[in-house]
Structure formats: C-alpha cells, structure tokens
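We modelled each protein-ligand pair independently. The example shown here corresponds to the pyridoxal-5'-phosphate entry; the chain sequence is given first, followed by the ligand as SMILES.
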Amino acid sequence: MTVLSLAVGERGLVDPADPVLHADDEAFLRGRAAFETIRVYGGRPFRLDDHLERLRGSARRLSLPEDEAAQLRPLVAEALAAAGEPDAVLRLYLTPGREGEGRATALAMVSTLPPDLEARRAHGMRAITVPLGLDPTLRAEAPWLLGGVKSTSYAVNMAAEAEARRRGADDAVFLASGRIVLEGPVTNVWWRSGRELFTPALELGILAGVTRAVLLEEAAGLGYEVREGAYPVERLAAAEEAFTSSSVREVMPVVGLDDEPVGDGRPGSAAAGLQAALRRAAGA
Ligand SMILES: Cc1ncc(COP(=O)(O)O)c(C=O)c1O
C-alpha cells in the first residue's frame, strides 16, 4: 500500500514523507496505541461512526484519552480530500504521545488498496491454523489481555501471517486451547454448512469486526441463519465453504485449511452472496 495523504492533530495536512511522531511516543516504545482500518468507497469511508466508536473503546482499554478521538473527524475529511483516490484504505491512529507528557496524537492516513485483492477473491486463500494457547474463556475475564482491542501491538498477528507464508499458505486462523476457532490476524472467520453460517462469538475476546456486523445484518436477507459460538476447528474443517471478513479484504473465500481443501476447494456461494451484499450496503 502507498500512502497518499496524511493529516495530523494540531497540524492538519502534512507531507506523508514528513516525520510526525517522536521517538519516545509510547506507540513506538511499547506498541500502545489504538488504530482503525476503514475501507473508502467512492470517497466515502464505510461505517466511519462504527469505527470511531470502536476506536474510542480501544482507547479506553489502553488508558488513552478517548476524547481525543473527536479530533479525528476533521482530519479524516482533510486526508480524504487530499488523497485524490475514491477507492482507498483509511487508517486512523491515536497514540499516547511523548513519555511523561500525556498529550495524545491523532493521525488519519489514506493509502492505496492492496493491488491483488480481486485476484485473491477469485481464487480464494489457503490458511493454516495457529494455536494461541489461551483458555477460550480467559480474555472475557482478563481485561489486561486486551481481547477485542485494536491496538498497534500486532507483531504476533504479523508473525502468524509470516508463518503462513513460510508454510506456503496465505493466511492464518488463531485457535484457543481445545482447538477453538478465534479469528485471523486481520480478519474474522466464518464457515457454512447448508443454510447455516457459523462465526466465533465475541465473548471469546476476538475483535468485533465492523464487516462482521454488516454480514450479520445481511445474512438473513440472503436466507442464512447465523450461529455465533465457541466451535472446535473440526467444524470449520468439515464445512461446505469458509471465508473471512475485514474492511480491506471484505469477504474473502478460504479454500484450504492446513493443506486440506475446505468443501470442494473452491470459493463458495455464501461468500459470493455476502460480498455482493456488502458492496450494496456500501453503495459501491
Ligand atoms: C484481529 C482482527 N480481527 C478482525 C478484523 C476485522 O475487522 P473489520 O471488519 O472491522 O475490519 C480485523 C481487522 O483489522 C482484525 O485486525
């Protein structure tokens, strides 16, 4: 992705090549910052209010001043106007600022979309399962584990993606102990058996995906019943089809899991129907 524009709190638009954070910003020192990734369709950020609400929740859980999130709306408008690209990725950040100062920094950054998304959607992705070793009920009771928080501490998620590539796959699926399906490093996970769709419950401490919420709204209209719960990976492996959801990748078919095909090993009908419904909802 190439950065097209960048707007920073108390400064406004800056050259994306300019430095904007201090070396002692805790976002860098400790990976303690809240962020959001939003898809922009035709110049409009999709479900911006939901993303800002989630950012405020993440900020609260990270002890960042959540009111600073209000700075982001005007920055979004400035960054989008300057980007000159109607279909793009908008990323928002709220960092704690310099150590000891406690003045948050807000950033809105617009980038190009990854170039290969539609080719990947046509072929589907192959995933590996990666155990996290967590008790599936633990994150609901242990707020310090930051379950469901979108923080910049994503090194583990990126390492899981790298492990998938190392093993010749495209993506990873995190499992809790008992081989319970959680989520992908940057996606929520879904599968279909007959007219039923299954997706892990938010109580497992996974991220409350904005796309996941849109698909929950759209599924009934397409004749699917959705079940949310704590499911062992065997259910996913035995599904007729599987897919992931995220703002950037939208609905992405998963055609293989741990070297075995999922269903007939091709992108499925629910993924196609929900992708079309998501685009309709986005007015795209
Ligand atoms: C861990 C994780 N789960 C799920 C998602 C999907 O969330 P959304 O649909 O809001 O993009 C993301 C998105 O970045 C993520 O990082």
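The chain has a mean pLDDT of 96.
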